[in-house]
Specification:
The protein has 612 residues and is α/β, with parallel strands linked by helices. The protein is built from 21 helices and 17 strands. Strand 5 (228-233), helix 11 and strand 6 (252-254) form a beta-alpha-beta unit. The longest helix has 21 residues, at 429-449. It is globular and about 70 Å long. One 2-acetamido-2-deoxy-beta-D-glucopyranose binds at residues 199, 202, 204, 407.
Length: 612
């Protein structure tokens, strides 16, 4: 080994230093070696011990898992700080959509339902407990129709929406009959009607946005058609609709169309949908439709069903004045004209518009209505402006602005136009292809560590730092979905690429709480998150937020530099997670490591965990 060379050699000296750093075992080994033979002078060793530096990569025979210097430090320092459970009243705590904080903000334009996060000094530093009796949700597709009562013990929807057939309470489960206010014949029949206008069957339409989604039956029933819907609804004082959606295994976040831009890039969705979503589309100069227009891709569809469509027949059952509904529809039609959308369909209570494929199709639009901001994807906490997002330029009148998309699933690995056009600085076609290959390799390695990954055991999956969406693409399966989060501080804004691949995602700042209820993800993947947020916010806060949104017995995969992971590992030691450090699939020499963890099962009112 390294000690065989001349002790006067400087390289050997630095190698000895490395041995010291990598841990006690090595220390004893060196000590033994030193006592055994003549090489290695005591001075050298003493010097090496005081100098605490080293590059571990040279030492192929060492096992990083237990010997790295960072970890030795962590172990010898102290035991991990034990983080206690929060009071049981916090079982449904959503820090940025907290009812009490919301009520201190104006109700005007739904401002009070937007994100309002607790300031630093009001953040909780405890573990959010699960309700008593909590169980792992049913596997998909049963979860589409049944949710265990104990997981979301709120019966108010079953009473309020009883006639509308949203949800029924049966024994210890909720049953979702696939109805909705707008789907008296069931969601499948409703989607059939939409599919007569919108090309869903051949993979042309893949990504959808459901604004004001209720319990997300629309998204749930689109699943079998290979369309993936991002659903959102505001937090409600008691109903917890988005929580039901996530318990059912349908992608959803808490959100509202108020005064702030939606947390999605421009040209993301192939289709947007509102069924009785109570958004005043024609109001405020059409600002809400302009925001939908921004996130809709050229050629994308907008579906509006329910009031005011078909007001002539329905104004009596809706108990609304005829004139008011007529005016409402007229203002919606006016905004649609301004946006240059083409009306494709109106029958019964369903109306469908299509966004044109490029600006050439709309020569009559006035320049002064266009947004001035250069970056249409800079949306985090930015106010909606009431202007039209311009189309990307085209070179011929038949070209689709921003590029025509391949059908799904081909789209998943096709070269996204945002990359081939060079609009994403630093990402070339080659780096994109390399990234795809790398993530297929990483995911294969994950499957060896955790055999359950694509078994259906994990349905709601979060990738906290999704990059180009390689993790989600490699995992793609009808059994699961991935919420691809692009941190607002990420160096590259890749969310547009993720949508171009036919995946879904959202912008988020991990220094704050995510827009979701506790226990809504089965598996969380965090690649480089802690390096990215190093010195930006507290590691412990990010870990506590991960714990909040992770189901009991849910799994975590953290991939990061070994020094950062050592700190993370120490904190999770006090968080009721069973954690294990694993080498990179290329071996122990790679400084990037993987920390895999499982959240223990425990519920409110229990002092200790099952394994302690
Ligand atoms: C998909 O179907 C629609 C409507 O039937 C059709 O217009 C379109 O050309 C089809 N696209 C492909 C790629 O097959
Ligand atoms: C929790 O632990 C404390 C102290 O160990 C004990 O007094 C208390 O009864 C325990 N509570 C429950 C619910 O087990």
């Amino acid at each position: 080994m390294a000690l065989k060379t001349n002790s006067a050699d400087g390289r050997t000296r630095s190698t000895i230093q490395i041995f010291i750093v990598v841990g006690l075992c090595c220390f004893f080994y060196i000590l033994g070696a030193w006592q055994r033979s003549g090489f290695g002078k005591a001075d050298n060793l003493a010097m090496a011990i005081t100098k605490n530096t080293g590059d571990c990569n040279i030492l192929s025979s060492l096992d990083f898992e237990t010997h790295h210097g960072g970890e030795v430090g962590a172990d010898s320092d102290s035991k991990p700080k034990v983080i206690d459970p929060c009071h049981p009243k916090y079982i449904d705590y959503t820090p940025c959509q907290d009812q009490r904080r919301a009520m201190t903000f104006p109700r005007e334009n739904m401002i009070y339902r937007e994100r309002h996060c607790p300031p630093e000094e009001e953040k909780l530093h405890c573990l959010i407990p699960a309700p008593k009796g909590y169980v792992t949700p049913f596997p998909w597709p049963k979860s589409r129709d049944y949710v265990p009562y104990a997981n979301a013990p709120y019966k108010s929807l079953t009473v309020e929406k009883a006639i509308q057939n949203w949800v029924q309470y049966e024994g210890n489960v909720f049953r979702f009959p696939g109805g909705g206010t707008q789907f008296p014949q069931g969601a499948d029949k409703y989607i059939d009607e939409l599919a007569s206008v919108i090309p869903m069957a051949n993979g042309t339409v893949r990504t959808a946005l459901d604004t004001g989604c209720g319990v997300a039956s629309w998204g749930a029933y689109l699943w079998s058609r290979n369309v993936i819907a991002m659903s959102f609804a505001p937090r409600d004082s008691h109903e917890a609709q988005v929580q039901f959606a996530l318990e059912r295994g349908v992608p959803a976040v808490t959100g509202v169309l108020g005064t702030i831009k939606l947390p999605y890039p421009s040209r993301a969705f192939d289709m947007a949908h509102c069924s009785r979503c109570l958004i005043p589309w024609g109001a405020n100069g059409g600002i809400y439709m302009m925001e939908v227009d921004r996130v809709l891709r050229p050629g994308g569809y907008w579906v509006l069903s329910g009031p005011p469509i078909n007001w002539k027949t329905n104004y009596i059952p809706w108990k609304r004045p005829k004139e008011e509904l007529q005016e409402e529809q007229r203002s919606i039609e006016d905004v649609a004209k301004l946006l240059c959308w083409e009306k494709k369909y109106e029958k019964g209570e369903i109306a469908i518009w299509q966004k044109r494929v490029n600006a050439d199709s709309c020569p009559q639009r006035q320049d002064d209505k266009f947004c001035k901001s250069a970056d249409t994807d800079d949306v985090w906490y930015k106010k909606m402006e009431g202007c039209i997002t311009p189309y990307p330029d085209v070179s011929s009148s038949s070209e689709v602005a921003g590029g025509e998309l391949k059908t799904f699933p081909e789209r998943l690995y096709a070269i996204p136009r945002r990359i081939s056009s060079g609009s994403l600085p630093g990402v070339s076609v080659e780096t994109y292809q390399e990234d795809s290959k790398l993530w297929r390799k990483h995911v294969n390695a994950y499957k060896k560590i955790n055999k359950l990954i694509d078994s259906g055991r994990y349905r709601n999956i979060m990738d906290m730092n999704a990059g180009l969406g390689g993790f989600a693409a490699a995992l793609e399966s009808p059994k699961l979905w991935v919420m691809n989060v692009v941190p607002t501080i990420a160096e590259k804004n890749t969310l547009g690429v993720i949508y171009e691949r036919g995946l879904i995602g959202i912008y988020h700042d991990w220094c704050e709480a995510f827009s979701t209820y506790p226990r809504t993800y089965d598996l969380i993947h965090a690649n480089g998150v802690f390096s990215l947020y190093n010195n930006k916010c507290n590691i412990e806060d990010i870990l506590l937020e991960m714990d909040r949104i992770l189901r009991p017995e849910g799994a975590v995969i953290i991939r990061d530099d070994v020094d950062v992971l050592a700190k993370v590992r120490k904190i999770v030691g006090g968080m009721r997670w069973d954690a294990k450090m694993v080498d990179h699939e290329d071996g122990p020499l790679v400084p990037e490591k993987i920390l895999v963890a499982v959240k223990q099962y425990w519920v409110a009112g229990e002092n200790s965990t099952s394994s302690q």
